[in-house]
């Protein structure tokens, strides 16, 4: 069972069903206010919590990850990690590049990735 912590409350979540999930992470400069803790602890920690709540396997849940700022980068596609351990290691190793925030481009790119995967 995974525990999601957001703000002051926590919720235990288990998601036994299959899903295709594309995480779209904002890596713009505004995310790193004074240090990188917000990115490495909060952003990647949240992404790991979400992804870790699902059974990861090619025939179950698959997770892809994109990050955006001025541009969009696909870090990994839905079918690249077939187990929870490799997926969580991949999420925790994502670096931040900074830049301006262009969420519109990120959402358009995510839609294209999802359309190709379906």
- Which percent range fits the helix content? 25-40%
CATH class: Alpha Beta
Judged by helices, strands and strand pairing, the structural class is alpha+beta
CATH-level-4 superfamily name? von Willebrand factor, type A domain
CATH topology: Rossmann fold
Just name the CATH architecture: 3-Layer(aba) Sandwich
Task: Report the sheet-strand fraction.
Answer: 15-25%
Which keywords apply here?
5 strands, two-stranded antiparallel sheet, single chain, 3 helices, Rossmann fold, globular, 118 residues, three-stranded mixed β-sheet, disordered N terminus, alpha+beta, 34% helix
Topology (SSEs and partners):
Blueprint: E1 2-6, E2 9-13, E3 20-26, H1 37-52, E4 62-68, E5 72-76, H2 84-92, H3 103-117
Parallel strand pairs: 3-4
Antiparallel strand pairs: 1-2, 4-5
Helix pairs in contact: 1-2
């Amino acid at each position: 069972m995974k525990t999601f912590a957001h703000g002051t409350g926590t919720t235990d979540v288990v998601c036994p069903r299959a899903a295709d999930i594309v995480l779209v992470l904002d890596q713009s400069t505004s995310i790193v206010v004074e240090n990188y803790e917000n990115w490495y602890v909060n952003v990647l920690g949240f992404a790991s919590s979400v992804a870790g709540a699902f059974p990861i396997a090619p025939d179950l849940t698959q997770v892809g990850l994109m990050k955006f700022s001025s541009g969009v980068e696909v870090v990994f596609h839905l079918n690249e990690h077939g187990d929870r351990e490799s997926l969580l290691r991949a999420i925790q190793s994502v670096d931040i590049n900074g830049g301006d925030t262009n969420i519109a481009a990120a959402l358009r790119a995510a839609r294209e990735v999802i359309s190709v995967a379906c």
